[in-house]
Amino acid sequence: MANSRAINSRIANFRSYDVAARRAEVVRQTDLTDADIAVYDDGGLGIDQADRMVENVLGVIGIPVGVATNFTINGRDYLIPLATEEASVVAAASNAARIARGLGGFHVSSTAPIMQAQIQLVDVVDPAAARIRLLEARDEIMALANEQDPKLVSVGGGVKDISVRIISSPEATYVVLHLHVDVRDAMGANAVNTMAEAIADRVAEIGGGHVVLRILTNKADLRLTRARAVFDAELIGGPEVVDNLIHAARMAELDPYRAATHNKGIMNGISSVVLATGNDTRAVEAGCHSHAINADGIYSSLSHFEKNADGNIVGTLELPMPVGLVGGATKVHPAAQAAIKMLGVESADELAGIILAVGLAQNLAAVRVLASEGVQRGHMGLHARNIAASAGAEKHEIDAVVARLIADKSIRVEHAETVLAEIRTGN
Ligand code: MEV
Predict the structure, then answer these.
(1) What is the Å distance from ligand 1's center to 269 Cα?
(2) Tens-digit pLDDT profile for residues 284-313
(3) Domain 114-217, CATH number (from 1.10.287.130, 2.70.98.10, 3.20.20.70, 3.30.70.420)
(4) Residue 370 class from Cβ within 10 Å (0-12 exposed, 13-18 middle, 19+ buried)?
């Protein structure tokens, strides 16, 4: 459900709040209650629930959940939960969202939520004719598949089409039928796999040969979500950083070695929201990476950055985004439920748009830093905080110790201990 109040995602100094104050602010702005947000206390998942989710359970593993701020998406503000073990991801996403905010924020759109299943026929004697026979039987195949999920059909989903491909190599030829299924607000794996298994025998009767695979494809290229945003050149750092940023982005389009790292930056944002909302990170990652092969067959950048007539940067991203609100961990994981409530999303499409916006923001933030000061300065600040804490600095002493470690260009525990002793004795 949408949050009952309008959210203001621009929260000054949110970083400097303590955890209790951050929770209070999120509860104040969203429909989450104190009790809802308290699920994050024990890692968000009790042991009994975990024991029902997978086999041979020993425990659960905690991952920090931070809130990204400054996001306006299709004219509406969101507070976005990100689950990640990597420092800087939440800050970077929030920072890039601030750079886009004054110029309209993020604009997102999606295709219909079409997932596909593949049914593979082997040993077909007449593959070309088999393909045509299967296409002739389109209505029968679709009806048989739709019988498996009347509930999905009743809410406007179900099989919308089929296609048939012939895949050949010197060793073998396969006839492969694709079911195109509108899965509405589900991720869709269960729905399409059930259908694929149910129609497999009939597909073999019509096509000939016998069935081997009958499973969804994670290359969800009929379920695309797009994001677009204009990033303010001044806030990016001025014309020189803008030009360097475009060079950095162009290199990711041309060079697979750079593309892999560039895309990893996008996935830092995407996987964090996918995980926080209990969706399948591997399905999304498989879909995104399969989408990174360009028209020349080369692994390339998933995003595109260009300079507009005002000298600002326009970033765009278009990706498969197979996420759901119904079924799977999203429905049973208490922390995932809290994340969905915090977002106030009403459809899988809306969630997919938020995920793309965070991916684009994360990407812009990373490439901007690379095109200017480099990543290590920021990382060193965070590293220094950890070192100061390891040396025994109390909360109120950390900033002073960190400042000295950075000024002295020596981020080591022994040095932090010396600095801490000096601060405490006033020397
Ligand atoms: C680090 O997790 C992600 C980056 O390497 C992404 C990039 O290089 O664009 C900073």
Answers:
(1) 11
(2) 999 999 999 999 999 999 999 999 999 999
(3) 3.30.70.420
(4) middle
